[in-house]
Amino acid sequence: MASRRGVLVGGLAAGALVVGYALRPRRYALPLPPGRDEVAFDAWIKLADDGVVTVAVPQVEMGQGVTTLIPQIIAYEMGADWRRVAVEPAPPSPLYANVPLASRWAELTMPAMPDALLGDDAALVRRWAQDHTFTVTADGTALAAYEGPARAAAAMARALLCMAAAERWDVDWRECDAKDGFVVHKGKRLPFGSLARAAAALDPPRSPPLRDAPPAERPGVPMAYPRLDLPAKVDGSLVFAGDVRLPGMVYASIRHGPIGESALADYDKTAANGVRGLITLVRNRGWIAAVASTWWAADQALTRIDAGFTSTDRADSATIDQAMETAMQTGTATRLAERGDPDAFLTGRLPLQLRYEVQPALHASIETASATARFKDGHLELWIGTQAPQAAREIAARALGIDVAAVTLYPMPLGGSFDRRLENDHAGEVALIARACQRPVQLTWSRKQEHIVGHPRPPVAAVLGANVDATGRLGGLRARIVAPATAREFGRRLLHADSPRAAIDAVAGVADPMMIEGAMPPYAIDHLAIDHVPVRLPLPTGRMRGNAHGYTAFFVESFLDELAHRAGREPLAYRMAMLGHDPRLADCLQRVAVLSGWGGGADNSGQGIACHLIGSAESGGRIALVASARRDADGVTVDRLSAVADIGRIVNLDIARQQIEGGLIFGLGLALGCSTGYEGGLPVTGRLASLNLPVLADCPAIDVNFITSSAAPADPGALGVAAVAPAVANALFSATGLRLRQLPLLSEDV
Amino acid sequence: MPRLTVNDRAIEIDLDPVTPLLWGLRDAANLTGTKYGCGVGDCGACMVLIDGEARRSCLVSLAECEGRAVTTIEGLSRDRSHPVQQAMVAEQAIQCGFCTPGIVIAAAGLLARNANPSDAQIKAAIPNLCRCGVYPRLLRVVQQASRAMRGNAAAGATPVTTIPSEGTPR
């Protein structure tokens, strides 16, 4: 996509100074020092005398399988025995800087830098990410960021082990190999454990050789790397942040004020008298917490107190809708991407213009925000699951007025997140509560609090317009997308510690390229223009799985489908005709037609098709999807989803399949529910039951096929999310003749 | 003080008897495998077996559990050997794992009363919310566990799972 960063942010300031700064060398201490029986290889691997290989995983496990993927890469490269591989979540450290994400989020991380200095490998980005201990888990960057370093560390470990064995055998170490936890040479073998100390004492070769091929799994072979985290998940022994139990620990619940500028008003604390187990109340400007011997007692106390808040600028659907409408009608647009000559071909009213709308949507992860804290002698220990651990440390440190170095963070797994846990409000809250009650405390938000503070995916409105010639050929396409500058707003909260209101105000009126990602169609269309109209809303909004692709794919693929039908063209052929330049996406479409028994989507078949590309033509991920759906008494029933994805080389096939399946289900939730209105600063849907989330009984039959490829790996996590809403909408058009142009799809009826 | 049996051990829980079982398990007995997701019966993450029946522990008070036998995920088997646990791992029907204990309990409760459930019966018996989206694998999980429990397949051993060939509907 043609980026207009330079236009948006102005020229470079003080470039030479910045480059000089980038060249200063740094060394960092190992974040996970080896135990008495272990030796460490780089920041990634520890090898124990008994042969157990422990892998440091610097990304949070939230279901996406990263605690298997990174160890798999290391086990493969090192020649380790998968049954003897252990995992240790790594605390935030500059050694694990997520450089590709810092680069991808350059608009947020380094807004004053010109593109030329910000490639994935640019030293400047690396230095920024290291200096900010930027190890954020997001946007499917784990492989891009960590496969290389993890492989290099494993190759070094293997080389050292081979050298140690070769010394004993008196052979050339280059003739040795490592396999299943042994170094092997012509029938001889020595277990890793017996070589650990000798290997660690050697100097590694300058560039240890990598195995010939990177790790890759192909369909049809037995699963060699089952997930490492499942045994502990299936017996309840995996400890989430809310499962931590410390000596003397107590439990806290919390009530936040309505969404807006809220301050705690007076309340009657005697109302909580008689709640057995209540220990104390802790108040802050925007919230009140109760601490008790069980979470339930704490929550009961808060219910009885029913504290009031004074607030202004409350989030309200009427105000939000009005702001969206005004922005659509009269708001100033910034052109963020274009192709061809839009000024000549795409001005004024176009022959066909259609409007799409997306309601705010909640993440609804089943785990609510939870954190455990112990504050003693000026030092805070924090047990928390978070996608942005350094930000969590900083929030807690700021809340207590202590140095960030005085906050030790223990990374915990997440019970789903879907980008909700990129934000860490509860880290500061639990720190303050722990200090106030002078003992270890565990804070858990109630479901309703999760919905109040859970900055939703933003509302979005778009008008797509097209120029079509007499034969129905699509000559040009223009999109005017109205949305808050959510990514920038999130960036202010994450990186500048802005309050939700301050973040909204800081980015008001600024166009946001991350809000239109995926709007540039993958098709060969001569003239294209994508405009963003940033709108200020009285509602903080945030990142969510799929992000912009979760609505832009809906706009583009619904619109394309409608164009095809209006031109009397079969929807698959209509798309294929514009994909001559992208054989990989065309291949996905052709294969999904076979997989699904695509019948052309003709009247009443109930089949709908969609495809989408996330990322660049070279390294992006692709999906084509056919949905079978119908209207019935319950609303919408989706009977079948058939998907073909091309995500390049696949490290772990079943995890990739989980990601596509899960993405389709998550996207189905967004297509049919997850939305909420707001009244008086509160979400109308305080319960999960009112979100129309899919359950097993609603789950369509799902077939997922992958195209075998050696192209660069692309993340599968968002592909299903993006494709499912348009495929289902197009299927419902086929089934009913009605075009649904809103998400959730039946919101027009409500 | 409510007295009940939890995972085959008789215990007393020194809490207000109106406290939901969920919090007695989590905050008094430290059985944290039973999860809080909503507190009002919407999500199913807190399911436990009460006298063999899968129930949402957020909706049952400690007083109501007086004299009853509760089985939590920790007590379902000593070594993850319950056929539902085995099948969940073998099919990798787990992602973040937060809803997993509730789903395992729901499936175990179903199979305890119906060793050979139909697909419709499985769907009706597992109302749990899973946001990661493991649903496409759950029918296979319960069918596999059902076969194991009926002796048609070896239980206990780590099953060999094969990644299906392309074009093979799962």
Automatic annotation (TrEMBL), chain A:
Keywords (A to Z) from UniProt: Oxidoreductase
Group of enzyme by EC: oxidoreductase
MF-aspect GO terms: isoquinoline 1-oxidoreductase activity
SUPFAM superfamilies: Molybdenum cofactor-binding domain
This enzyme's EC code(s): 1.3.99.16
InterPro entries assigned to the protein according to its UniProt record, in alphabetical order: Ald_Oxase/Xan_DH_a/b (IPR000674), AldOxase/xan_DH_MoCoBD1 (IPR008274), AldOxase/xan_DH_MoCoBD2 (IPR046867), AldOxase/xan_DH_Mopterin-bd_sf (IPR037165), N-heterocyclic_Hydroxylase (IPR052516), OxRdtase_Mopterin-bd_su_IorB (IPR012368), TAT_signal (IPR006311)
Domain Aldehyde oxidase/xanthine dehydrogenase a/b hammerhead: 235-313
Transmembrane segments: none
The name this protein goes by in its record: Isoquinoline 1-oxidoreductase beta subunit
Origin species: Novosphingobium fluoreni
From TrEMBL, chain B:
Keyword Cell wall biogenesis/degradation among record annotations: no
The keyword Metal-binding is annotated on this UniProt entry: yes
PANTHER family associated with the record: BLR6218 PROTEIN, OXIDOREDUCTASE WITH IRON-SULFUR SUBUNIT
Protein name in the entry: Isoquinoline 1-oxidoreductase alpha subunit
InterPro entries in the cross-refs: 2Fe-2S-bd, 2Fe-2S-bd_dom_sf, 2Fe-2S_ferredoxin-like_sf, 2Fe-2S_ferredoxin-type, 2Fe2S_fd_BS, Beta-grasp_dom_sf, Diverse_Oxidoreductases
EC number: 1.3.99.16
Single GO molecular function: 2 iron, 2 sulfur cluster binding
Domain of life: Bacteria
Pfam family, one: Fer2
Domain 2Fe-2S ferredoxin-type residues, every copy: 1-76
